[in-house]
């Protein structure tokens, strides 16, 4: 009941049927709604008049007393029937019911004689056409074949398969076809089973593969596949697209036939039968396609609606099926024709009625049809109309003001003007569809409206409606007027100096220019009154070089766009080549790539220098810390006032000298009671200088020995007056106290090195 109009709707519609010759036929049609309701019938679009052969029953059904496939006058009762129901709200048409006569042709395939060895496979086939589809049964030796024998398989299309043949299977076979129209018998065929079962190897072979089938949902499909071979091959099924076949409704008949019950659209596809030799990859395949059709059915029904006069009514009707159904709209039983205010969109799924009036009030039907069937749904449009509404506004005029403005004026309606609360101006480009229309509201005391922001050189249509609290008036007459043409806008202009005698004028194309045919370029010396030009340039040109200029003067360059309506405003630029040339000489352009390379080189040098400096500092520190150990300073040519006592080498080797208080730590580490510095001896070697200046330049080192407050001052000598002689290693003494005449107390403190 969903989507039905409450005023008129079908309860039962006629359905497809197969009629028997000379037998009565009843087509059912039941309607509900507001009485009185009139029901009539049509066949192939022609009204059926009650007669002795066909007449309507009291409940609205059609009764055909004796169905005739072909009458003496050449007419036939076969065809498409529909019933129509009408009341004062509108008219409905039912779905079309296809009526066909029951028939049966002669057999066009009869079973053939066959000789098959024992253990093999026998196949008989007979084929016949009829409506409805004949049921085919098999007889052996004039007796029905025992279907309980699992080696005997009967397929719906008239095929008999016998596997694992035995001697008792020999006999005479024929088939019997039956439907409501007739019963027919095929010719006979003899089956002979010869010899014993062979053990010779035979490759698998498919005797008969699946046929291409086109069926409707909920029917049953049987895909035949019969294979032979020795050993007996294994038959399997798959889909070519890799999808699983599934298990629900799937059954295997005999040794390899696939039966699919209660078909759905998802069962459509290409099916592959494979015969495999057991234990190997040797196989043979055959394939067939299955197409499952689905009759049209509605996903969304149209809904009955009520709308005020002047508004828009929209009906939506969405159907599905396989193949996809075609949608047709009817208005009170007649095919709906589109117009300026009636539009169909989305493959006819959406019906839009703009600016509805009382003439649009009707029952609208959506018919969905495909090769598998048809269906219909209906809805009613009620147009709300109140008495006493204003008549349409009068004398609508439109005058062009400019390229983007039109002045629309009108006069008030002639009737029922007291309740008017305002007017609505409906505006649309004349070339646009009705759904592109837009509105502007106007107060009730205003009888003109300035419509702005229009497009130049464009035709517009206008009409007015007067509104009250109870509804709107009918639309006024439509007036059409065009806006004026418009000259292009100012282009953007840029000047670039190429050299001392050439500049380049460039500009950017823009939609703000509007419709233009091209550009005009002018230029002159500023002290002259006359321009050079115009230089006419096409609309797709965006640059122009001005050459042979004088570098000593200033130039004025002017650019404008033009079209058939005239020249637009110009853009002016001034340029001086002299200043540019002087600036180029004074400030030559930098070689950015070279500077960048120099910067990179300088930066790299700084980084490398820092690394080298840090490395040198580290080595100096290590050198000061660990160098100069075990070294002696021996002066050769000292000043006369300095006397250096000569110490025997043996004693020198025994005692050793330490510069700046440094000792041989290797020996200190071996024996804490080793050799120590003899302060008196050091004073004799480096006596203090009587000059204060020499004292200030000296190297001072303080070291805590046996007397912590003793301080040794060492004079600095010129390089040519002293030399460094490496200390000769001494053998370790057996008694550390015997190495020095006066052994001072050992010092465990650290030495300061200068």
- Quote the average pLDDT: 80
How much of the sequence is in beta strands?
35-45%
Q: State the helical fraction.
A: under 10%
Q: Which spans have pLDDT < 50 for at least 5 consecutive residues?
A: 1-5, 629-754
Largest sheet: 6 strands, mixed
Radius of gyration: 58 Å
Total number of helical segments? 6
Question: Structural class, from secondary structure content?
Answer: mainly beta
Number of domains: 5
Shape, principal axes of CA atoms:
flat
Number of strands: 60
Kindly report the name of the CATH homologous superfamily of the largest domain.
Answer: Immunoglobulins
Distance linking N and C termini: 115 Å
Q: What's the CATH architecture name of the largest domain?
A: Sandwich
CATH C-level name of the largest domain: Mainly Beta
At CATH level 3, the topology of the largest domain is: Immunoglobulin-like
Membrane topology: Single-pass membrane protein
Subcellular location: Membrane
GO cellular component, one term: membrane
Pfam families: fn3, I-set, Ig_3
Task: Describe this protein's structure.
The radius of gyration is 58 Å and the shape is flat. By secondary structure, it is mainly β. It contains 6 helices and 60 strands. Strand 5 and strand 6 form a beta hairpin. The strands form 17 sheets. Strands 2, 5, 6, 9, 10 and 11 form a 6-stranded mixed beta sheet that branches. Strands 13, 16, 17, 20, 21 and 22 form a 6-stranded mixed beta sheet that branches. It folds into 5 domains: 9-101, Sandwich (Immunoglobulin-like); 104-286, Immunoglobulin-like (Sandwich), CATH 2.60.40; 301-384, Sandwich (Immunoglobulin-like); 387-482, Immunoglobulins (Immunoglobulin-like, Sandwich); 494-577, Immunoglobulin-like (Sandwich).
